[in-house]
Design a protein that fits this description.
The radius of gyration is 19 Å and the shape is elongated. 29% of the residues lie in helices and 33% in strands. Strands 1, 2, 3, 4, 5, 6, 7, 8 and 9 form a nine-stranded antiparallel β-sheet that branches. The protein has two helices and nine strands. The longest helix is centred in the first third of the chain and has 25 residues.
Length: 137
Protein backbone atom coordinates (compact mmCIF):
# COMPACT_ATOMS: atom_id res chain seq x y z
CA UNK A 1 0.00 0.00 0.00
CA UNK A 2 1.58 3.31 -1.12
CA UNK A 3 1.62 6.68 0.59
CA UNK A 4 -1.15 9.11 -0.18
CA UNK A 5 -0.14 12.23 -2.06
CA UNK A 6 -0.65 14.33 1.08
CA UNK A 7 1.68 12.15 3.16
CA UNK A 8 4.28 12.08 0.39
CA UNK A 9 4.20 15.89 0.10
CA UNK A 10 4.49 16.18 3.89
CA UNK A 11 7.60 14.00 3.88
CA UNK A 12 9.21 16.06 1.09
CA UNK A 13 8.41 19.28 2.94
CA UNK A 14 9.84 17.90 6.19
CA UNK A 15 13.04 16.84 4.39
CA UNK A 16 13.33 20.28 2.77
CA UNK A 17 12.83 22.08 6.07
CA UNK A 18 15.41 19.82 7.76
CA UNK A 19 17.97 20.61 5.02
CA UNK A 20 17.33 24.36 5.34
CA UNK A 21 17.69 24.20 9.13
CA UNK A 22 20.96 22.29 8.79
CA UNK A 23 22.34 24.90 6.36
CA UNK A 24 21.19 27.73 8.63
CA UNK A 25 22.76 26.06 11.68
CA UNK A 26 26.05 25.59 9.83
CA UNK A 27 26.11 29.24 8.76
CA UNK A 28 25.24 30.29 12.33
CA UNK A 29 28.38 28.48 13.56
CA UNK A 30 30.67 30.34 11.19
CA UNK A 31 32.94 32.73 13.12
CA UNK A 32 31.74 35.97 11.53
CA UNK A 33 33.32 39.24 12.70
CA UNK A 34 36.13 37.40 14.49
CA UNK A 35 39.80 37.90 13.79
CA UNK A 36 41.28 34.63 12.52
CA UNK A 37 45.03 34.00 12.45
CA UNK A 38 46.63 31.46 10.13
CA UNK A 39 48.01 28.52 12.09
CA UNK A 40 51.60 29.19 11.02
CA UNK A 41 54.76 30.74 12.36
CA UNK A 42 55.85 34.15 11.09
CA UNK A 43 58.42 34.09 8.32
CA UNK A 44 62.01 34.76 9.40
CA UNK A 45 62.57 38.45 10.08
CA UNK A 46 58.85 39.18 10.46
CA UNK A 47 56.19 39.06 13.17
CA UNK A 48 53.34 38.99 10.67
CA UNK A 49 51.04 36.01 10.18
CA UNK A 50 48.19 36.02 7.62
CA UNK A 51 44.87 37.12 9.10
CA UNK A 52 41.26 36.85 7.94
CA UNK A 53 38.09 38.53 9.19
CA UNK A 54 34.78 37.78 7.48
CA UNK A 55 31.60 39.82 7.91
CA UNK A 56 28.04 38.53 7.55
CA UNK A 57 27.38 40.68 4.47
CA UNK A 58 30.25 38.92 2.65
CA UNK A 59 33.04 41.48 2.99
CA UNK A 60 36.40 40.11 4.16
CA UNK A 61 39.53 41.77 5.50
CA UNK A 62 42.51 39.75 4.33
CA UNK A 63 46.14 40.03 5.38
CA UNK A 64 48.53 37.82 3.43
CA UNK A 65 52.26 37.59 4.21
CA UNK A 66 52.85 41.05 2.71
CA UNK A 67 49.68 42.43 1.14
CA UNK A 68 46.45 43.51 2.81
CA UNK A 69 43.05 44.29 1.40
CA UNK A 70 39.41 43.44 1.00
CA UNK A 71 37.87 40.34 -0.47
CA UNK A 72 34.42 38.79 -0.85
CA UNK A 73 33.18 35.61 0.78
CA UNK A 74 30.04 33.64 -0.03
CA UNK A 75 28.91 30.99 2.46
CA UNK A 76 26.09 28.51 1.97
CA UNK A 77 25.97 25.70 4.50
CA UNK A 78 29.47 24.22 4.56
CA UNK A 79 30.31 25.59 1.10
CA UNK A 80 32.47 28.70 0.86
CA UNK A 81 33.86 30.80 -1.97
CA UNK A 82 36.57 33.41 -1.39
CA UNK A 83 37.26 36.04 -4.02
CA UNK A 84 40.48 38.06 -3.82
CA UNK A 85 41.85 40.64 -6.22
CA UNK A 86 45.48 40.49 -5.17
CA UNK A 87 46.48 43.27 -7.59
CA UNK A 88 44.17 45.68 -5.73
CA UNK A 89 45.64 44.85 -2.32
CA UNK A 90 47.91 47.26 -0.44
CA UNK A 91 51.55 46.20 -0.59
CA UNK A 92 53.67 46.39 2.55
CA UNK A 93 57.45 46.51 2.36
CA UNK A 94 58.31 43.01 1.23
CA UNK A 95 60.94 40.77 -0.32
CA UNK A 96 60.34 39.12 -3.70
CA UNK A 97 60.16 35.72 -1.92
CA UNK A 98 57.33 36.92 0.33
CA UNK A 99 55.49 38.45 -2.63
CA UNK A 100 55.63 35.01 -4.32
CA UNK A 101 54.24 33.46 -1.13
CA UNK A 102 51.39 35.98 -1.26
CA UNK A 103 50.52 34.91 -4.80
CA UNK A 104 50.51 31.23 -3.81
CA UNK A 105 48.57 31.89 -0.61
CA UNK A 106 45.95 34.00 -2.42
CA UNK A 107 45.55 31.17 -4.96
CA UNK A 108 45.08 28.66 -2.10
CA UNK A 109 42.37 30.88 -0.52
CA UNK A 110 40.61 31.28 -3.87
CA UNK A 111 40.61 27.47 -4.34
CA UNK A 112 38.82 26.82 -1.02
CA UNK A 113 35.40 25.19 -1.47
CA UNK A 114 34.32 24.09 2.01
CA UNK A 115 34.76 25.00 5.66
CA UNK A 116 34.35 23.41 9.06
CA UNK A 117 35.13 24.27 12.68
CA UNK A 118 37.49 22.12 14.75
CA UNK A 119 37.02 23.55 18.24
CA UNK A 120 38.38 27.13 17.93
CA UNK A 121 39.96 26.56 14.51
CA UNK A 122 38.34 27.41 11.19
CA UNK A 123 39.46 24.85 8.62
CA UNK A 124 39.22 25.99 4.99
CA UNK A 125 39.15 22.99 2.70
CA UNK A 126 40.46 22.98 -0.85
CA UNK A 127 43.51 21.52 -2.61
CA UNK A 128 45.46 22.99 0.34
CA UNK A 129 43.86 22.85 3.80
CA UNK A 130 44.23 26.16 5.63
CA UNK A 131 43.73 26.38 9.40
CA UNK A 132 42.84 29.68 11.06
CA UNK A 133 42.70 29.98 14.86
CA UNK A 134 40.28 32.36 16.53
CA UNK A 135 42.27 35.29 17.88
CA UNK A 136 42.30 35.62 21.64
CA UNK A 137 42.31 39.44 21.52
Amino acid sequence: MGLSNGKRVSRYLAAGVAAMLAATAAAAEFPFERELLLDAKPLPGSKRVPMLEIFREGRALIDLWCKSGDGRVEISGDAIKITITIEAMKLESCTPERMERDEAFAAALAAVTQWRMDDDVLVLIGPTELRYALSSH
